[in-house]
Amino acid sequence: MVDSLKKPQFEEIRPGIKVPAKETILTPRFYTTDFEEMAQMDISANEDELRAILEEFRVDYNRHHFVRDEEFKQSWEHIDGETRKVFVEFLERSCTAEFSGFLLYKELGRRLKGKNPVLAEIFTLMSRDEARHAGFLNKALSDFNLSLDLGFLTKSRDYTFFKPKFIFYATYLSEKIGYWRYITIYRHLEKHPEDRIYPIFRFFENWCQDENRHGDFFDAIMRAQPNTLNDWKARLWSRFFLLSVFATMYLNDIQRSDFYASIGLDAREYDKLVIDKTNDTAGRVFPIILDVNHPEFYDRLEICVDNNDKLREIANSNAPGVVKFFRKLPHYVSNGLQLIKLYLIKPIRVDHLAGTVR
Questions:
Q1: N or C terminus: fewer CB in 10 A for the chain?
Q2: Residue 244 half-sphere exposure, CB side, CA atoms within 13 Å?
Q3: pTM of the model
Q4: Which helix (H) or strand (E) holds 59?
């Protein structure tokens, strides 16, 4: 029998209901937007493609996919210690991110109904997909005697307001990077089944196709709104969101490298592959992509990794609050400088008509 005292303990709201992870700049965000501006959006420039995407969502390729099979029906007590802790954190972060998408898409579907019926139905069907993902992940948490109170999350989380075009940038990248994360893990475990410590990873191949279709929708809606892509402001915002998404993922994943090690992956190599693939994918719609092969790109991210390690050490120390603040300040400043310097690395311009980069 596994010694229960060796299992990491998670703070609970009530028995079996996990206290949500503390909100930080690196945790999954909950978004809201200008629903009226979205409802008034003219999609005529790309309506045929959007209607084709709607038909694909209606088909619902994954309607029978998210069904737990016999492999789940066993004890998972053998996943213990640090592996159990980091795996529960992975499930929680993934569930929270999927649930955040569900809330945003559901509200958009509700607010746009009767005003912009094509977009309203697409958002409603995407919320269906995200609800399945979140529910499947939350059920997985129950195998570890925990779950998230999603109703509590709805009420307790702060919501970040983005104008519609910024929602498009952020959610497009979130969905596309989600695709590359899931498919990379799936392909690795397909080659190395001995590293598949839990059956949820078998579902990632079909799962990531939902992410890909969602990303294709945001690609199409941005091309229906040329002002989101075709001016100097679009180039600046594209750089900002690419860097924000890549830096956030890298800092999060390196902090949780034990999870990736538990499934046979090196967190740094995994992230570099996902960033490279997502960056290339973004070049199909964004006017610029980042020069992720620049010699300073990962060197500066590694400085941020070191700063974050020091920030956690300070946070966990017994020093008074004001002392902690002044000890943290240089590391916050350093992180800010590194990100500014990363932003200023010359990006790669994309010529969509010629199919080239320069």
A1: N
A2: 17
A3: 0.91
A4: helix 47-59
Q: Which residue is it, tokens 């956690």?
A: 312
The series of mean pLDDT values per 10 residues for the chain, 358 residues long, is 48 78 74 93 94 96 92 91 90 93 95 94 97 95 91 85 93 96 97 95 94 96 90 94 96 93 96 98 96 97 96 91 92 97 96 50
To which residue do tokens 């969905």 refer? 175
HEC string for 302-340: HHHHHHHHHHHHHHCCCCCHHHHHHHHHHHHHHHHHHHH
Nearest to 38 by CA among 176, 225, 175: 225
Hunting for tokens 């799962």 — which residue is that? Answer: 207
Strand partners, 357: 350
**Sign for the pseudo-dihedral over CA of 206, 149, 154, 254:** negative
Distances in Å between the Cα of 4 and the Cα atoms of 8, 80, 196 are 9, 9, 23
Q: What is the number of residues in the chain?
A: 358
pLDDT 10s digits, 150-174:
888 888 888 889 999 999 999 999 9
Asked if 134 and 102 touch (Cβ cutoff 8 Å), the reply is yes
Q: What is the pLDDT of residue 9?
A: 64
Whether the CB-CB separation of 239 and 347 falls below 8 Å is answered with yes
Task: Report DSSP state, residue 288.
Answer: E
Helix H, strand E, coil C: the string for 214-283 is: HHHHHHHHHHCCHHHCCCHHHHHHHHHHHHHHHHHHHHHHHHCHHHHHHCCCCHHHHHHHHHHHHHHHHC
- Beta-bridge mates of residue 147: 17
Q: CA 256 to CA 249: how far, in whole Å?
A: 11
CB 82 within 8 A of CB 257: no
Cα of 209 vs its chain's centroid, Å: 15
Q: Which two tokens stand for residue 66?
A: 């998210």
pLDDT digits (tens, 9 = 90+) for 66-100: 999 999 999 999 888 888 999 999 999 999 999 99
